[in-house]
Protein backbone atom coordinates (compact mmCIF):
# COMPACT_ATOMS: atom_id res chain seq x y z
CA UNK A 1 0.00 0.00 0.00
CA UNK A 2 2.85 2.36 0.70
CA UNK A 3 4.12 2.01 -2.86
CA UNK A 4 0.66 2.67 -4.18
CA UNK A 5 0.59 5.81 -2.15
CA UNK A 6 3.87 6.99 -3.68
CA UNK A 7 2.55 6.15 -7.13
CA UNK A 8 -0.50 8.18 -6.35
CA UNK A 9 1.56 11.28 -5.78
CA UNK A 10 3.81 10.83 -8.79
CA UNK A 11 1.32 10.02 -11.47
CA UNK A 12 -1.24 12.58 -10.46
CA UNK A 13 1.29 15.31 -10.91
CA UNK A 14 1.81 14.01 -14.43
CA UNK A 15 -1.93 13.83 -14.91
CA UNK A 16 -2.24 17.37 -13.63
CA UNK A 17 0.29 18.57 -16.18
CA UNK A 18 -1.43 17.05 -19.18
CA UNK A 19 -5.01 17.86 -18.23
CA UNK A 20 -4.62 21.63 -18.03
CA UNK A 21 -6.13 22.34 -21.46
CA UNK A 22 -8.69 25.13 -21.41
CA UNK A 23 -12.18 23.72 -21.86
CA UNK A 24 -14.46 25.45 -24.30
CA UNK A 25 -17.62 27.04 -22.99
CA UNK A 26 -20.09 24.52 -24.31
CA UNK A 27 -23.66 25.03 -23.24
CA UNK A 28 -26.11 22.29 -22.71
CA UNK A 29 -28.96 21.61 -25.10
CA UNK A 30 -32.15 20.12 -23.73
CA UNK A 31 -33.04 18.53 -27.06
CA UNK A 32 -29.96 16.32 -27.03
CA UNK A 33 -30.28 15.11 -23.46
CA UNK A 34 -30.91 11.35 -23.14
CA UNK A 35 -34.11 9.92 -21.69
CA UNK A 36 -34.35 10.12 -17.91
CA UNK A 37 -31.97 13.08 -17.54
CA UNK A 38 -33.26 16.19 -15.77
CA UNK A 39 -33.38 19.45 -17.71
CA UNK A 40 -34.47 23.01 -16.97
CA UNK A 41 -37.06 25.19 -18.63
CA UNK A 42 -37.09 28.71 -17.24
CA UNK A 43 -37.76 28.48 -13.50
CA UNK A 44 -38.74 24.79 -13.58
CA UNK A 45 -36.96 21.47 -13.71
CA UNK A 46 -38.22 18.99 -16.25
CA UNK A 47 -37.91 15.26 -16.64
CA UNK A 48 -38.53 13.90 -20.13
CA UNK A 49 -40.27 17.14 -21.03
CA UNK A 50 -42.63 17.22 -18.03
CA UNK A 51 -42.39 19.43 -14.94
CA UNK A 52 -40.32 17.89 -12.15
CA UNK A 53 -41.10 19.42 -8.75
CA UNK A 54 -39.77 17.64 -5.73
CA UNK A 55 -38.86 17.35 -2.10
CA UNK A 56 -35.35 15.99 -1.72
CA UNK A 57 -33.30 14.52 1.10
CA UNK A 58 -29.86 15.47 2.34
CA UNK A 59 -28.07 12.36 3.61
CA UNK A 60 -24.33 12.80 3.28
CA UNK A 61 -23.67 9.60 5.25
CA UNK A 62 -25.41 7.21 2.88
CA UNK A 63 -22.32 6.21 0.84
CA UNK A 64 -20.46 5.56 4.09
CA UNK A 65 -22.78 2.74 5.11
CA UNK A 66 -21.22 -0.70 4.90
CA UNK A 67 -24.16 -2.96 4.13
CA UNK A 68 -26.33 -3.02 1.08
CA UNK A 69 -29.43 -3.76 3.15
CA UNK A 70 -28.97 -0.51 5.14
CA UNK A 71 -28.61 1.46 1.91
CA UNK A 72 -31.75 -0.15 0.49
CA UNK A 73 -33.68 0.36 3.71
CA UNK A 74 -32.84 4.07 3.67
CA UNK A 75 -33.90 4.50 0.06
CA UNK A 76 -37.11 2.63 0.75
CA UNK A 77 -37.96 5.01 3.59
CA UNK A 78 -37.20 7.97 1.32
CA UNK A 79 -39.34 6.53 -1.45
CA UNK A 80 -42.25 6.00 0.93
CA UNK A 81 -41.88 9.60 2.10
CA UNK A 82 -42.20 10.76 -1.53
CA UNK A 83 -38.58 11.88 -1.84
CA UNK A 84 -37.36 12.13 -5.44
CA UNK A 85 -33.85 13.53 -5.08
CA UNK A 86 -30.98 12.72 -2.73
CA UNK A 87 -28.05 15.05 -2.15
CA UNK A 88 -24.89 13.41 -0.90
CA UNK A 89 -21.12 13.79 -0.75
CA UNK A 90 -19.10 12.57 -3.70
CA UNK A 91 -15.89 13.19 -1.78
CA UNK A 92 -14.17 11.55 1.12
CA UNK A 93 -10.48 12.20 1.39
CA UNK A 94 -7.96 11.39 4.07
CA UNK A 95 -4.35 12.42 4.52
CA UNK A 96 -1.22 10.30 4.90
CA UNK A 97 -1.38 10.35 8.70
CA UNK A 98 -4.88 8.93 8.64
CA UNK A 99 -4.21 6.26 6.04
CA UNK A 100 -2.88 3.42 8.25
CA UNK A 101 -5.81 3.72 10.67
CA UNK A 102 -8.25 3.88 7.77
CA UNK A 103 -6.83 0.73 6.20
CA UNK A 104 -6.94 -1.12 9.49
CA UNK A 105 -10.50 -0.13 10.33
CA UNK A 106 -12.18 -0.28 6.94
CA UNK A 107 -13.03 3.43 7.07
CA UNK A 108 -14.62 4.70 3.88
CA UNK A 109 -12.36 6.97 1.86
CA UNK A 110 -12.16 7.76 -1.81
CA UNK A 111 -8.87 9.60 -2.00
CA UNK A 112 -5.93 8.74 0.23
CA UNK A 113 -4.45 12.11 -0.55
CA UNK A 114 -5.77 15.10 -2.46
CA UNK A 115 -3.88 13.98 -5.52
CA UNK A 116 -6.21 11.51 -7.13
CA UNK A 117 -5.16 8.37 -8.85
CA UNK A 118 -7.14 5.28 -9.70
CA UNK A 119 -5.41 3.11 -7.10
CA UNK A 120 -6.16 5.55 -4.32
CA UNK A 121 -9.87 5.58 -5.12
CA UNK A 122 -10.39 2.90 -2.59
CA UNK A 123 -14.06 2.82 -1.63
CA UNK A 124 -15.83 4.23 -4.65
CA UNK A 125 -17.83 1.02 -4.92
CA UNK A 126 -19.79 2.30 -1.93
CA UNK A 127 -20.69 5.43 -3.88
CA UNK A 128 -21.47 3.25 -6.92
CA UNK A 129 -23.90 1.28 -4.79
CA UNK A 130 -25.73 4.40 -3.64
CA UNK A 131 -26.05 5.76 -7.16
CA UNK A 132 -27.30 2.47 -8.61
CA UNK A 133 -29.66 1.74 -5.69
CA UNK A 134 -31.11 5.26 -5.95
CA UNK A 135 -32.37 4.36 -9.43
CA UNK A 136 -34.15 1.26 -8.11
CA UNK A 137 -36.21 3.54 -5.86
CA UNK A 138 -36.90 6.23 -8.46
CA UNK A 139 -34.53 8.71 -6.79
CA UNK A 140 -31.93 10.89 -8.51
CA UNK A 141 -28.72 12.03 -6.86
CA UNK A 142 -26.98 15.40 -6.53
CA UNK A 143 -23.27 14.70 -6.04
CA UNK A 144 -20.96 17.32 -4.51
CA UNK A 145 -17.27 17.15 -5.47
CA UNK A 146 -15.71 18.62 -2.33
CA UNK A 147 -16.41 20.53 0.85
CA UNK A 148 -15.54 24.07 1.83
CA UNK A 149 -15.30 22.75 5.37
CA UNK A 150 -12.84 20.26 6.76
CA UNK A 151 -15.43 17.49 7.05
CA UNK A 152 -14.68 14.40 4.97
CA UNK A 153 -11.40 15.81 3.72
CA UNK A 154 -12.66 18.92 2.05
CA UNK A 155 -10.77 21.71 0.36
CA UNK A 156 -8.35 22.42 3.20
CA UNK A 157 -6.86 19.00 2.67
CA UNK A 158 -5.87 20.13 -0.85
CA UNK A 159 -4.58 23.43 0.52
CA UNK A 160 -2.46 21.85 3.25
CA UNK A 161 -1.14 19.15 1.00
CA UNK A 162 -0.39 21.09 -2.15
CA UNK A 163 0.11 24.71 -1.11
CA UNK A 164 1.60 23.90 2.28
CA UNK A 165 1.29 25.43 5.72
CA UNK A 166 0.23 29.00 6.52
CA UNK A 167 -1.79 29.54 3.36
CA UNK A 168 -5.23 31.11 3.44
CA UNK A 169 -8.23 28.96 2.56
CA UNK A 170 -8.98 30.77 -0.68
CA UNK A 171 -5.81 29.59 -2.45
CA UNK A 172 -8.00 26.56 -3.08
CA UNK A 173 -9.78 28.66 -5.70
CA UNK A 174 -6.72 30.17 -7.34
CA UNK A 175 -3.62 27.93 -7.07
CA UNK A 176 -3.27 26.21 -10.48
CA UNK A 177 -1.80 23.06 -8.89
CA UNK A 178 -4.81 22.75 -6.58
CA UNK A 179 -7.24 23.41 -9.41
CA UNK A 180 -5.54 20.70 -11.49
CA UNK A 181 -5.80 18.25 -8.61
CA UNK A 182 -9.46 19.09 -7.98
CA UNK A 183 -10.23 18.75 -11.68
CA UNK A 184 -8.47 15.44 -11.87
CA UNK A 185 -10.69 14.08 -9.08
CA UNK A 186 -13.79 15.66 -10.60
CA UNK A 187 -12.96 14.00 -13.92
CA UNK A 188 -12.76 10.62 -12.23
CA UNK A 189 -16.19 11.02 -10.65
CA UNK A 190 -17.93 12.58 -13.65
CA UNK A 191 -16.61 10.01 -16.10
CA UNK A 192 -17.68 7.22 -13.77
CA UNK A 193 -21.34 8.28 -13.80
CA UNK A 194 -21.75 10.53 -16.83
CA UNK A 195 -24.07 8.10 -18.62
CA UNK A 196 -26.25 7.45 -15.57
CA UNK A 197 -29.79 8.87 -15.50
CA UNK A 198 -29.57 8.39 -11.70
CA UNK A 199 -27.49 11.57 -11.43
CA UNK A 200 -29.65 14.68 -11.00
CA UNK A 201 -26.77 17.18 -11.04
CA UNK A 202 -23.12 17.82 -10.28
CA UNK A 203 -22.27 20.24 -7.53
CA UNK A 204 -18.92 22.04 -7.58
CA UNK A 205 -18.49 22.38 -3.83
CA UNK A 206 -20.52 22.30 -0.66
CA UNK A 207 -20.83 25.88 0.65
CA UNK A 208 -17.88 27.60 -1.02
CA UNK A 209 -16.61 30.58 0.97
CA UNK A 210 -13.44 32.67 1.18
CA UNK A 211 -12.75 31.19 4.60
CA UNK A 212 -13.16 27.74 6.08
CA UNK A 213 -13.46 26.35 9.58
CA UNK A 214 -9.72 25.70 9.79
CA UNK A 215 -8.12 28.37 7.58
CA UNK A 216 -8.82 32.12 7.30
CA UNK A 217 -9.62 34.06 4.13
CA UNK A 218 -6.68 35.73 2.41
CA UNK A 219 -6.43 39.37 1.29
CA UNK A 220 -7.27 38.49 -2.31
CA UNK A 221 -10.69 37.00 -1.62
CA UNK A 222 -12.71 40.12 -0.84
CA UNK A 223 -15.93 41.75 -2.07
CA UNK A 224 -15.39 42.62 -5.73
CA UNK A 225 -12.48 40.24 -6.32
CA UNK A 226 -14.89 37.75 -7.93
CA UNK A 227 -12.74 34.88 -6.71
CA UNK A 228 -15.64 32.47 -6.38
CA UNK A 229 -17.42 33.72 -9.49
CA UNK A 230 -14.27 33.05 -11.50
CA UNK A 231 -13.83 29.62 -9.94
CA UNK A 232 -17.49 28.71 -10.48
CA UNK A 233 -17.14 29.72 -14.12
CA UNK A 234 -13.93 27.74 -14.67
CA UNK A 235 -15.15 24.63 -12.93
CA UNK A 236 -18.67 24.62 -14.41
CA UNK A 237 -17.13 25.01 -17.89
CA UNK A 238 -14.73 22.19 -17.09
CA UNK A 239 -17.50 19.83 -15.94
CA UNK A 240 -19.56 20.74 -19.01
CA UNK A 241 -16.62 19.82 -21.23
CA UNK A 242 -16.67 16.35 -19.67
CA UNK A 243 -20.42 15.85 -19.52
CA UNK A 244 -22.78 17.66 -21.89
CA UNK A 245 -25.93 16.17 -20.37
CA UNK A 246 -26.16 16.50 -16.59
CA UNK A 247 -27.12 19.67 -14.80
CA UNK A 248 -24.42 21.59 -12.94
CA UNK A 249 -24.76 23.83 -9.89
CA UNK A 250 -22.60 25.55 -7.32
CA UNK A 251 -23.70 23.98 -4.03
CA UNK A 252 -23.32 27.41 -2.44
CA UNK A 253 -25.13 28.96 0.50
CA UNK A 254 -26.43 31.72 -1.72
CA UNK A 255 -24.68 34.75 -0.23
CA UNK A 256 -25.19 38.02 -2.06
CA UNK A 257 -22.86 40.82 -3.05
CA UNK A 258 -25.17 43.78 -3.12
CA UNK A 259 -23.73 47.21 -3.77
CA UNK A 260 -26.40 48.74 -1.55
CA UNK A 261 -25.40 47.47 1.86
CA UNK A 262 -27.74 45.70 4.22
CA UNK A 263 -27.09 46.82 7.75
CA UNK A 264 -28.61 46.25 11.13
CA UNK A 265 -28.09 47.44 14.67
CA UNK A 266 -26.58 44.96 17.06
CA UNK A 267 -25.61 45.89 20.59
CA UNK A 268 -25.51 49.64 19.72
CA UNK A 269 -23.36 49.01 16.64
CA UNK A 270 -24.41 49.26 13.02
CA UNK A 271 -23.34 45.95 11.46
CA UNK A 272 -22.85 45.33 7.74
CA UNK A 273 -24.63 42.09 6.97
CA UNK A 274 -22.23 39.30 6.00
CA UNK A 275 -24.92 37.51 4.01
CA UNK A 276 -25.33 40.45 1.63
CA UNK A 277 -22.01 42.32 1.47
CA UNK A 278 -19.89 39.91 -0.55
CA UNK A 279 -17.53 39.07 2.29
CA UNK A 280 -18.50 35.40 2.28
CA UNK A 281 -17.27 35.20 -1.32
CA UNK A 282 -20.38 34.37 -3.33
CA UNK A 283 -22.36 36.74 -5.51
CA UNK A 284 -25.60 34.83 -5.96
CA UNK A 285 -27.10 37.11 -8.60
CA UNK A 286 -24.09 36.88 -10.89
CA UNK A 287 -23.11 33.29 -10.09
CA UNK A 288 -26.54 32.23 -11.29
CA UNK A 289 -26.04 33.95 -14.65
CA UNK A 290 -23.01 31.82 -15.54
CA UNK A 291 -23.72 29.84 -18.72
CA UNK A 292 -22.99 26.43 -17.21
CA UNK A 293 -24.59 26.99 -13.82
CA UNK A 294 -27.96 25.49 -14.66
CA UNK A 295 -29.76 26.28 -11.42
CA UNK A 296 -29.15 28.00 -8.11
CA UNK A 297 -28.77 26.56 -4.64
CA UNK A 298 -28.96 28.30 -1.30
CA UNK A 299 -29.00 27.29 2.35
CA UNK A 300 -30.83 28.69 5.33
CA UNK A 301 -29.60 28.57 8.94
CA UNK A 302 -30.57 31.85 10.62
CA UNK A 303 -30.10 30.49 14.12
CA UNK A 304 -26.44 29.77 13.58
CA UNK A 305 -25.84 32.75 11.29
CA UNK A 306 -27.33 35.36 13.63
CA UNK A 307 -26.96 35.05 17.34
CA UNK A 308 -28.48 38.56 17.17
CA UNK A 309 -31.87 37.12 16.29
CA UNK A 310 -32.61 36.56 19.92
CA UNK A 311 -31.06 39.87 20.95
CA UNK A 312 -33.53 42.16 22.70
CA UNK A 313 -34.84 44.75 20.24
CA UNK A 314 -34.19 42.66 17.16
CA UNK A 315 -36.97 43.03 14.58
CA UNK A 316 -36.36 39.60 13.15
CA UNK A 317 -37.46 36.22 14.14
CA UNK A 318 -35.87 33.07 12.77
CA UNK A 319 -39.06 32.51 10.83
CA UNK A 320 -39.31 35.99 9.29
CA UNK A 321 -35.63 36.14 8.40
CA UNK A 322 -36.01 32.83 6.57
CA UNK A 323 -39.02 34.08 4.60
CA UNK A 324 -37.09 37.16 3.46
CA UNK A 325 -34.09 35.04 2.48
CA UNK A 326 -36.37 32.84 0.37
CA UNK A 327 -37.89 35.92 -1.32
CA UNK A 328 -34.44 37.38 -2.04
CA UNK A 329 -33.44 34.22 -3.89
CA UNK A 330 -36.72 34.04 -5.78
CA UNK A 331 -36.06 37.54 -7.12
CA UNK A 332 -32.60 36.50 -8.33
CA UNK A 333 -33.96 33.29 -9.85
CA UNK A 334 -36.68 35.20 -11.69
CA UNK A 335 -34.07 37.57 -13.08
CA UNK A 336 -31.84 34.74 -14.25
CA UNK A 337 -34.87 32.68 -15.32
CA UNK A 338 -33.39 29.54 -13.79
CA UNK A 339 -34.67 27.14 -11.14
CA UNK A 340 -33.53 27.35 -7.51
CA UNK A 341 -33.41 24.78 -4.77
CA UNK A 342 -33.70 25.67 -1.12
CA UNK A 343 -31.04 23.04 -0.73
CA UNK A 344 -30.36 22.95 3.00
CA UNK A 345 -32.24 24.40 5.91
CA UNK A 346 -32.48 23.66 9.56
CA UNK A 347 -33.38 24.88 13.01
CA UNK A 348 -32.69 23.26 16.35
CA UNK A 349 -35.35 21.57 18.45
CA UNK A 350 -38.50 19.69 17.53
CA UNK A 351 -40.75 22.55 18.62
CA UNK A 352 -38.89 25.05 16.42
CA UNK A 353 -38.90 22.66 13.51
CA UNK A 354 -42.58 21.93 13.69
CA UNK A 355 -43.57 25.61 13.89
CA UNK A 356 -41.03 27.20 11.52
CA UNK A 357 -40.68 24.62 8.73
CA UNK A 358 -44.32 24.77 7.60
CA UNK A 359 -43.97 28.52 6.95
CA UNK A 360 -40.71 28.20 5.03
CA UNK A 361 -41.91 25.18 3.09
CA UNK A 362 -45.16 26.92 2.13
CA UNK A 363 -43.30 30.00 0.90
CA UNK A 364 -40.96 27.82 -1.12
CA UNK A 365 -43.80 25.83 -2.68
CA UNK A 366 -45.63 29.06 -3.48
CA UNK A 367 -42.57 30.35 -5.35
CA UNK A 368 -41.72 27.34 -7.57
CA UNK A 369 -39.01 25.91 -5.39
CA UNK A 370 -37.63 22.49 -4.91
CA UNK A 371 -36.76 21.92 -1.24
CA UNK A 372 -34.22 19.73 0.50
CA UNK A 373 -34.28 19.92 4.30
CA UNK A 374 -31.12 19.20 6.28
CA UNK A 375 -31.30 16.41 7.09
CA UNK A 376 -33.11 13.21 6.49
CA UNK A 377 -32.59 10.50 9.11
CA UNK A 378 -33.10 6.77 9.14
CA UNK A 379 -33.83 4.50 12.10
CA UNK A 380 -33.25 0.79 12.51
CA UNK A 381 -29.96 0.56 10.62
CA UNK A 382 -28.18 -2.74 11.21
CA UNK A 383 -24.82 -1.00 11.45
CA UNK A 384 -24.00 0.43 14.84
CA UNK A 385 -21.37 2.52 16.57
CA UNK A 386 -19.37 4.90 14.71
CA UNK A 387 -16.03 6.41 14.22
CA UNK A 388 -14.71 3.39 12.35
CA UNK A 389 -17.11 4.02 9.54
CA UNK A 390 -18.13 7.59 9.92
CA UNK A 391 -15.27 9.86 10.84
CA UNK A 392 -15.69 12.71 13.31
CA UNK A 393 -18.36 12.64 15.96
CA UNK A 394 -21.37 11.74 13.86
CA UNK A 395 -21.78 8.07 14.64
CA UNK A 396 -24.72 5.73 14.20
CA UNK A 397 -26.40 5.38 17.58
CA UNK A 398 -28.66 2.42 18.21
CA UNK A 399 -29.38 2.19 14.51
CA UNK A 400 -30.19 5.90 14.06
CA UNK A 401 -28.25 7.74 11.32
CA UNK A 402 -26.05 10.66 12.44
CA UNK A 403 -27.84 13.45 14.25
CA UNK A 404 -26.30 16.93 14.19
CA UNK A 405 -29.35 18.41 15.91
CA UNK A 406 -31.08 19.06 12.61
CA UNK A 407 -31.81 15.45 11.73
CA UNK A 408 -35.47 14.40 11.70
CA UNK A 409 -36.68 10.83 11.79
CA UNK A 410 -39.89 9.07 10.84
CA UNK A 411 -40.88 8.70 14.50
CA UNK A 412 -41.00 12.52 14.82
CA UNK A 413 -44.30 12.75 13.03
CA UNK A 414 -44.86 16.49 13.57
CA UNK A 415 -41.81 17.19 11.42
CA UNK A 416 -41.90 14.16 9.16
CA UNK A 417 -45.47 14.93 8.06
CA UNK A 418 -44.52 18.46 6.98
CA UNK A 419 -42.21 17.00 4.38
CA UNK A 420 -44.33 14.06 3.29
CA UNK A 421 -47.24 16.47 2.73
CA UNK A 422 -44.98 18.81 0.75
CA UNK A 423 -43.66 15.86 -1.26
CA UNK A 424 -47.20 14.87 -2.15
CA UNK A 425 -47.95 18.40 -3.42
CA UNK A 426 -44.73 18.51 -5.41
CA UNK A 427 -45.30 15.07 -6.90
CA UNK A 428 -48.82 16.04 -7.97
CA UNK A 429 -47.33 19.04 -9.78
CA UNK A 430 -44.88 16.81 -11.62
CA UNK A 431 -45.55 15.20 -14.96
C1 LIG B 1 -4.08 14.67 8.89
O1 LIG B 1 -5.33 14.98 9.46
C2 LIG B 1 -5.33 14.93 10.86
C3 LIG B 1 -6.77 15.20 11.32
O2 LIG B 1 -7.61 14.17 10.93
C4 LIG B 1 -4.37 15.94 11.43
O3 LIG B 1 -4.34 15.86 12.82
C5 LIG B 1 -2.97 15.68 10.86
O4 LIG B 1 -2.08 16.69 11.26
C6 LIG B 1 -3.00 15.64 9.35
N1 LIG B 1 -1.70 15.25 8.83
C7 LIG B 1 -1.08 15.86 7.84
C8 LIG B 1 0.21 15.29 7.39
O5 LIG B 1 -1.56 16.84 7.30
C1 LIG C 1 -35.46 47.16 12.55
O1 LIG C 1 -36.11 47.65 11.39
C2 LIG C 1 -35.82 48.99 11.07
C3 LIG C 1 -36.67 49.40 9.92
O2 LIG C 1 -36.63 48.47 8.86
C4 LIG C 1 -34.33 49.13 10.79
O3 LIG C 1 -34.01 50.49 10.52
C5 LIG C 1 -33.54 48.67 12.00
O4 LIG C 1 -32.18 48.69 11.73
C6 LIG C 1 -33.97 47.27 12.37
N1 LIG C 1 -33.32 46.87 13.61
C7 LIG C 1 -32.67 45.73 13.75
C8 LIG C 1 -32.09 45.44 15.08
O5 LIG C 1 -32.54 44.92 12.84
C1 LIG D 1 -35.63 27.28 19.30
O1 LIG D 1 -35.58 28.60 18.82
C2 LIG D 1 -35.32 29.58 19.81
C3 LIG D 1 -35.44 30.92 19.14
O2 LIG D 1 -34.49 31.08 18.12
C4 LIG D 1 -33.95 29.33 20.41
O3 LIG D 1 -33.69 30.26 21.41
C5 LIG D 1 -33.88 27.92 20.96
O4 LIG D 1 -32.58 27.65 21.41
C6 LIG D 1 -34.29 26.91 19.90
N1 LIG D 1 -34.34 25.58 20.47
C7 LIG D 1 -33.43 24.65 20.17
C8 LIG D 1 -33.60 23.34 20.90
O5 LIG D 1 -32.51 24.82 19.40
C1 LIG E 1 -37.08 8.91 17.56
O1 LIG E 1 -35.81 8.37 17.28
C2 LIG E 1 -34.70 9.11 17.77
C3 LIG E 1 -33.44 8.46 17.30
O2 LIG E 1 -33.33 7.17 17.77
C4 LIG E 1 -34.78 9.24 19.26
O3 LIG E 1 -33.72 10.05 19.72
C5 LIG E 1 -36.10 9.82 19.68
O4 LIG E 1 -36.21 9.82 21.08
C6 LIG E 1 -37.26 9.01 19.07
N1 LIG E 1 -38.59 9.52 19.44
C7 LIG E 1 -39.07 10.75 19.25
C8 LIG E 1 -40.48 10.98 19.58
O5 LIG E 1 -38.40 11.65 18.82
From TrEMBL:
Record keywords, A-Z: Glycosidase, Hydrolase, Secreted, Signal
GO terms, molecular function: mannan endo-1,4-beta-mannosidase activity
Compartments in which it is found: Secreted
Signal peptide annotation: 1-23
Glycoside hydrolase family domain residues: 36-347
Keyword field contains Hydrolase: yes
EC assignment: 3.2.1.78
Domain of life of the native organism: Eukaryota
Family annotation (Gene3D superfamilies): Glycosidases
Reaction catalysed by this enzyme: Random hydrolysis of (1->4)-beta-D-mannosidic linkages in mannans, galactomannans and glucomannans
Gene Ontology cellular-component annotations: extracellular region
Record-linked Pfam families: GH5_mannosidase
SUPFAM superfamilies the UniProt entry points to: (Trans)glycosidases
GO BP, one annotated term: mannan catabolic process
Family of the protein in this entry: Belongs to the glycosyl hydrolase 5 (cellulase A) family.
Full protein name: mannan endo-1,4-beta-mannosidase
Species for this entry: Trametes cubensis
Lineage: Eukaryota, Fungi, Dikarya, Basidiomycota, Agaricomycotina
Amino acid sequence: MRTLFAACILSSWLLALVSRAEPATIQRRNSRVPQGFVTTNGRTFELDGKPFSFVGANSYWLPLLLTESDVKKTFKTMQEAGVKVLRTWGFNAINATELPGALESGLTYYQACPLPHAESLSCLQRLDRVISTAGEYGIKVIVAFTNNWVGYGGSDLYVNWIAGANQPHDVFFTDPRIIASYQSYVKTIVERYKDSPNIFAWELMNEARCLSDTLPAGPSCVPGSNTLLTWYRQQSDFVRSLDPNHLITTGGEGHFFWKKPVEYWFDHTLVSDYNFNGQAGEDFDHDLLLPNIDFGTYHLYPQSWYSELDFPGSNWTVESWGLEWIDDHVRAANKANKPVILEEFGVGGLQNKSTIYPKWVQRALDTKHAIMPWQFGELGLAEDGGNRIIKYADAINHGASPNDGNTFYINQTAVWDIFTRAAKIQNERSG
